[in-house]
Each structure stands twice: as structure tokens, then as C-alpha cells.
Write a structure and sequence with these properties.
Layout lengths: L9 E4 L2 E4 L3 H5 L48 H10 L3 H12 L4 H7 L2
Antiparallel strand pairs: 1-2
Length: 113
């Protein structure tokens, strides 16, 4: 049987029929999902990020999720320095609101030291 006598086979694709073996027969063939994907989003636990009190705006959007952990491999001077750098959200926002107008220049200068 000669190859010239064979009629080419066609495959149904998204854009009509395409000859078997052509790139369209592989790239554009009809595909159907063999599974149905469902997700129950109610089963995912939610993190309560609501602030404990009413916020005064504008405020820095800080969230105290975890406590600050100081590494054990630091010496006492380095640990003391890190403890002086810790600022909670309320004191940080009070410093920011006091410095917002910058009319009290001495306070602003002392805080930036």
C-alpha cells in the first residue's frame, strides 16, 4: 500500500478539523475536565486582626501579632540596646502625632536623637 493513497486523518479541534500530527491537533484539541474542583472556604481558620480599641486616624498601620524575640547569642550590651529600640504601637503613634506639626521643635529634636 503506497503512502500517497492514504487519506489524512483529521482531529476535531477548537477551531474546526485539523490534520492528525499537525501542531494544531495537539495544541487545540477539545479537553474536558476529568474532575470537579470544589473548595469549602468556611473550613479555613480565620485570624482575628481586629484592633482591640477604636483607632484614632491617621495612625500607622502596625499590628502587634507576635512579641519581639531577642536572640540568645547576643551579649548583654546588645540585648540592652535592642530593648531600648522596642516601641509599642500606642507610644509610637503618640510620638508621631506630637511630631506631626513639628511646632515643638525641642521635642522633635530630642526624639530623633
Amino acid at each position: 500500500m503506497a503512502a500517497e493513497n492514504l487519506s489524512p486523518a483529521f482531529v476535531q479541534t477548537t477551531f474546526g478539523q485539523s490534520q492528525t500530527g499537525s501542531f494544531c491537533s495537539y495544541q487545540l484539541t477539545h479537553t474536558e475536565a476529568n474532575f470537579s474542583a470544589t473548595t469549602n472556604i468556611a473550613s479555613i481558620p480565620r485570624l482575628n486582626n481586629s484592633p482591640p480599641t477604636e483607632l484614632a486616624y491617621p495612625r500607622f498601620p502596625l499590628s502587634a501579632m507576635d512579641t519581639f524575640v531577642i536572640s540568645d547569642n547576643l551579649n548583654d550590651a546588645e540585648k540592652a540596646l535592642l530593648r531600648t529600640l522596642e516601641v509599642n504601637e500606642n507610644s509610637f503613634n503618640s510620638i508621631e502625632s506630637a511630631m506631626r506639626e513639628q511646632s515643638n521643635f525641642d521635642f522633635w529634636k530630642n526624639e530623633l536623637k
